[in-house]
Amino acid sequence: MDTIFFLVLRRMRAPLLILIVVYAVAMAGMALIPAQDADGRPTSMSLFHAFYFVSYMSTTIGFGELPNAFTDAQRLWVSLTVFSTVAVWIYAIGNLIALLQDTTLQRAIAERRFRMRVRALSRPFYLVCGYGQTGSALVRGLTDRHLQAVVIDVDPDRINLLRLDNQREFVPALCADARSPAALESAGLSHPLCRGVVALTNVNEANLKIAIAAKLLRPKIKVICRADSHEIEANMASFGTDHIYDPFDAFALYIATAIQAPCQTLLVDWLSGFGGEALTEPRYPPTKGLWVICGYGRFGKAMYQHLKGQGFELSVIEASPHKTGIPPEGVVHGRGTEAVTLEQAEIRRAVGLVAGTDHDADNLSIIMTALDLNQDLFVIARENHIQNQELFDRVGAHAIMNPSTIIANRIRIRLVTPLLAEFSTLARFQDEEWASQLVSRIIALIDERMPYVWEVMVDEEGAFALHDDEMRHLVVTLDTLLRDPRDRDQRLCAIPLLLIRDGERFLLPELGERLEPGDHLLFCGREEAHRRMDWVLQNIHALRYVVTGESPREGPIWRWIAAWQRLR
C-alpha cells in the first residue's frame, strides 16, 4: 500500500498543486472583487460562496450566479477562471490516465492484490515457482485433487496463460522473479499453511537459489526441486533439499526397470496414473541386442549408462561429439536423420532406438527413417515440447519421454499421495510373480480404467467416526472398511496396498488387521469405493452398521415409527 501511495503522490504531485493554486487564486479573486447585492449596494462574496461557485463552475455544471448577480468585473474574472480551471483539469486528468496505465503502478496494485489473496488462504497450499510445461502440469494435478497452489513466474505471458486455464481451484499467481526472497515472502513462504516450495524453472541455478532461500527463510518447510545437472543436484542435496528430480535419470531408470520387471513397471504405471483414464498396455522392451542412441546429451548419457548396466551392446550417434563427449565404444558423427548415418550405427540389426536429441523435428525424422530400415525396433522418443504430443503418438514410438510430464507426475504423487511413492519403492524389492498377482487383483476390480489411489489417516480428521466415544469399543478391521455402508454383505472394490504403523511398513496388509490410532493406509480401487469408505470413516451410523449390522433409528420420529410397527 505504501508503494502505491508513493507512486500516486509522485506522479500526481504537480497536477494537484497546480489545481490547488488555481482554485485558491480563483476563490481569492471572487472574494476580493467588489460585488453588488440585489438593491445595487456594494458588497463582497464570502469565501464559502466563492468556494461553492468555483467548485461547480469549474465542473461546467452552471447553476447560475450567486448569491447575487455578478458585476462585469466578476464576470470577466469568471471567464478567465473557467478557461484556467478547465485547462488544469484536462492536465490533471491526463496525468491520472497516464498514471493508471503506468506499468509500475499496475504491478504494485497486482502485487498488493496477490498478497491479500495469499494471506486470505484458509487451506494448506504449495508454492510453485515456474509455470512452464512442468509447473502447469503439476498445478493441474494438484487442483484436480482439490489442493491449493500459489504460482510465481518471471514471464508475464505464462501468468496470463494461467489465468486463462480452466483450473478446478483458484490459483493466485504473481509475475516476479522467484529467486528474490521478497517475492517468496509475498507468495506466502512464511504463511503458516504453506506446506512446501516446488522449484520448477528451466534454469538449474534459479532452482538452486530458490531452494537455498526457502531453506534459510523457513528451514523446516518441504523443498522439492528439478535439476538437470548432477553437480546442481549434489549442491541441492548438501543443504537438505527434501526431494530432487532429474527427468533424464528418472526415465532411464524407468526403462531399465521395465526391461528387468515389466509387470512391476505396469503396476506402478497404473497406480501413478490419473484414476478413470483408460488402462495403458504393458511395455516389453528387448532384453538383449544392440541399441542405437541418437543424441549423447543429458538424456542420451543417462540412457547409455542404464542400458550399459543392463549389458546391452550400444552404438551412439552424435552431431557434436566435441561438445558432449565420446563414449568408450566411439561415436558415429551425424544427427541420425540420414539413412547413411543410421546404417553406420548398424540400425538394421538393432533391437532398440533412442531418439534423444534436443529437437523434436530431428527426433521425429530419426524415428521415421529408422523404422523404414528396421520395422522391429523398440523405439524410445524424447519429446521436448508437449505441443507435439500428437505427432509422437502417431510416429510409432513405444515409449515417449517428456521431461516436464515426468517431473510433474513424480512431484504430484509425492505431494498428493506420498504413500504411493513409499509403495513404489517397496514394490521394487518384490519379484515379478508378486506384481503379476497384484495386477490380476486390480484388473478384477476395475473396469478397464486406471484405479483411483487414496490415503486414509486414522485420526480425528481422517476417521472421525472411529474416534467417537460411542464407537471406541468397536473392533474395526481393514475388512470393516471394505464393507459397503449401503449393504454390509457387499464388498467395496478396493485393495489395501500399504499400512504404516509406528514407522513400520506392511505391504498388502491382512484384512483381519485391526485399525489403531495413527495408522496410515494406502488403498486403490474404484472412485465410488473411496467415497463410501469415507462415509464409513466419518459417519458413526454407517460405521456401526458395517461393524454390527445394526442401524437403530436415532431420531424421535423414526423411533415412534419403529415402535408403532412393533405394536402392529
UniProtKB/TrEMBL annotation:
Compartment(s): Cell membrane
Alphabetical list of Pfam families matching this protein: Ion_trans_2, TrkA_N
- Principal location class: membrane
| Annotated ranges, domain RCK C-terminal | 459-539
Q: Does the keyword Transcription apply?
A: no
Membrane-crossing residue ranges in chain numbering: 12-33, 45-64, 76-100
**What's the name of the protein?**
Potassium channel family protein
Q: Which organism is it from?
A: Thiorhodococcus fuscus
